[in-house]
Structures are given as structure tokens and as C-alpha cells.
Amino acid sequence: MPRNRRIGYTTGKNRRPNGDPLRIALDRLRRDFPGKSRSWVKRALFRLPHVREVREGLYVVEGVRELGDWKPLYQVWWSAREGRWECTCYYSTFGWRRRRGICTHVASVLLYRRFKRAVEAVENRPVYFASAEVECVDVKVRGALEHRVVPLEQSDTILDCGKRRRFAVYVVSAEPEVEILCDNAPVKLQGVKVSYKVAKALLQDAQRGDAP
Ligand SMILES: [Zn+2]
Ligand SMILES: [Zn+2]
To answer: Where is the SWIM-type domain (predicted)?
Structure first.
């Protein structure tokens, strides 16, 4: 297959600025609770998809049979009076036993809160968004966090594959200045400072063909 027929939707390596939010959240949970076992952290991670935030300080955690839960839902909340996180499982038969430690429903909420903060930190991180229209056979983008290359004209036949075409190039970068290669000739682009969240929205628009 000729190379440029694959162009049209290319993404940079899925490198996230500031690293992976889930890894950051897990590191922070381990750091904040150094005495807790690996299985405690593992269970918190396993429960993470089953945590729902009702509001700040109040969460619903779905019961998971494989983890020994016998109720469909557990409520986890911050008790200002007690100065600790509480779970409905502490108030059931033998709950006092769990209450002395930190149950893994609460652990999953603690992980969820750290994960949410890490995601927000990544989304609000300043990055640079640059766009350009170029005419060439082949476009390369290097060192970007993410990018899209959208051909503005169709290549009609397979024989057109070596022909110059117009491309719209969109780049999200950690640096204000980005270099793209048009048939190996460097072209410098100047980015506009935006949040990573906004940059991703701009890239998505670009994919739909709304050229800025
Ligand atoms: Zn679920
Ligand atoms: Zn619990």
C-alpha cells in the first residue's frame, strides 16, 4: 500500500503530559497509606470502575461478589465529626471489625479522588496548539504530544500517491514552537497556549474537518 494513502488520520504516540493519571493516583495512595498491603491497593484498583461520586464527600460503591460483598451498594462518606471516612459496611454485623482498619470500599474512594485530581491536573496543564496548511507529498510531525494530518484533497487513484497534496496539520505540543517536516523540509509552527483539555477539543474539531 502506498504510504500517503494511510495518511488522513494519524495520532502521535499516546504520551500524556505529566504521565498516566492512574499511575500517579496509585503512587499517591501508596505514599499516603504506607502501612497498607498490596492486596488492599489491588482491591481499591479493582473497585475503581464501580465508584460513583454523588457529591464532594459522598460516594456510592457497587458491591462486587468476587470481593466478598453481599450488598449491591455501599455508601462511603466523609464524617467531619469523626474526622474519618465512613462506610455502610462498618455498621453491619461484624462491621466494627472492619471499622478498625480502612475497608476497601473506602480505599476505592480514596483512589478515585486521587485519580480525579490527577486527571484534572493533566487536563488543565498548559500546552501549545498550532495549525498550518501545507502542500507536499508527505508530512511528518515529530516530538508532539498529539497531532492530526488531514488531507484537504482526495487522491483519486492509486497513481496519485506520489503527487503533492494540500494537508491541514494540527499539533499539540509541550513547547511553543513545533517543527513539522514537509517532504523532509522543516517548517516551524508557532503554537497558541491553551489547556490540554482545550487542545484536545480543537483536535477533535479538526478531525471533523472544521478548518480554523
Ligand atoms: Zn459497576
Ligand atoms: Zn466498606
So the answer is: 74-114
Q: What band does 103 get if pLDDT is binned at 50, 70 and 90?
A: very high
Ligand nearest to the CA of 97: 2
Cα(98) to centroid of ligand 2, in Å? 8
The Å distance, Cα 103 to ligand 2 centre, comes to 5
Structural domain spans, the chain: 3-15+125-207, 21-123
CA 138–ligand 2 middle distance (angstroms): 57
What is the per-residue pLDDT for 120?
93
Residue 4 has pLDDT above 80, yes or no: no
Q: Residue written as cell 498548559?
A: 126
pLDDT at residue 162, as a whole number: 75
- What's at 159, amino acid-wise? L
Encode pLDDT of 161-186 as tens digits.
678 889 999 999 999 999 999 999 99
Identify whether the C-beta of residue 12 lies closer than 8 Å to the C-beta of residue 147: yes
- Ligand with smallest separation from the Cα of 52: 1
Sheet holding 73-79, edge to edge: 51-55, 58-62, 73-79, 84-87
